[in-house]
Amino acid sequence: AQSVTQPDIHITVSEGASLELRCNYSYGATPYLFWYVQSPGQGLQLLLKYFSGDTLVQGIKGFEAEFKRSQSSFNLRKPSVHWSDAAEYFCAVAKPRGFGNEKLTFGTGTRLTIIP
Amino acid sequence: DADVTQTPRNRITKTGKRIMLECSQTKGHDRMYWYRQDPGLGLRLIYYSFDVKDINKGEISDGYSVSRQAQAKFSLSLESAIPNQTALYFCATSDPLRDRANEQYFGPGTRLTVT
């Protein structure tokens, strides 16, 4: 079964600084990978996804993530954070299509705080 | 209007009561899901449905049941609520025939408190 680890429970970053949120997965082959953001009192919104092709994926709101097979990682990055980026971020993994990819397995989340 | 809606948005109920959470979608997706979110645990899958005639248990289905009344509606029931079912519940939809990655689209959530 697949699993996801987000090692950082809480990260604090100054506005304008760069950001990297870590995500490691466990699965025997290349999974489908996702990053979702949950703003306070809101549902989850997809930031970006990877399932094949270029390992550097661009998403919404200026976010990007890089799939590194050798490290089983899919870290999320942003060059300059804005106060509106304060939220909880979830990494998720699914099996490839045809292998039961209806099940998303989520990490435990990283809460991002932005300070002025 | 939101594509995936959930009612109610907040609910407080007492131990032993039966409660139903409802989810509706206008995306035309066949697949629907129910998750619960607990602090520090992320989201965990309760049930999912591929179509009206297909219901499947997720990883934490005990104490829950579901009903897929139509393609657009998927309800989650707690037959006899208990305090450890206090959580934030999310409904989601997806359409793998149109999206190879099978991206899931989430509703705004229902915050349930069982006292």
Describe the protein.
The complex is a heterodimer of chains A (116) and B (115). Chain A is mainly beta. Chain A has strands at residues 3-5, 10-14, 19-21, 24-26, 32-38, 44-50, 56-58, 64-68, 73-78, 87-94, 105-106, 110-115. In chain A, the strands form three sheets. In chain A, strands 2, 5, 6, 10, 11 and 12 form a six-stranded mixed beta sheet that branches. In chain A, strands 3-9-8-7 form a four-stranded antiparallel beta sheet, with no helix packed on it. Chain B is mostly beta strands. Chain B is 0% helix and 56% strand. The model of chain B has no long low-confidence stretch (mean pLDDT 93). The chains are: A mainly beta (116), B mainly beta (115). At the A-B interface, strand 5 and strand 6 of A face strand 5, strand 9 and strand 10 of B.
Q: What's the Cα radius of gyration of chain B?
A: 13 Å
| Helix percent band of chain B | under 10%
Q: Give the biggest sheet of chain A.
A: 6 strands, mixed
Considering residues with a beta carbon less than 8 A from a beta carbon on another chain, report the largest interface and each chain's count.
A-B, 23 and 26 residues
> In percent, how much strand structure appears in the residues of chain B?
over 45%
Low-confidence stretches of chain B: none
Query: Approximately how much helix is present in the residues of chain A?
Result: under 10%
The termini of chain B sit apart by: 33 Å
Shape of chain A: globular
Strand content of chain A: over 45%
Note the gap between the termini of chain A. 41 Å
What value does the Rg of chain A take, in angstroms? 14 Å
Helix run count of chain A: 0
The beta-strand count of chain A equals 12
Helical run tally of chain B? 0
What is the ordering of alpha helices and beta strands of chain A? EEEEEEEEEEEE
Low-confidence stretches of chain A: none
How would you name the oligomeric state of the polypeptide chains in this document? heterodimer
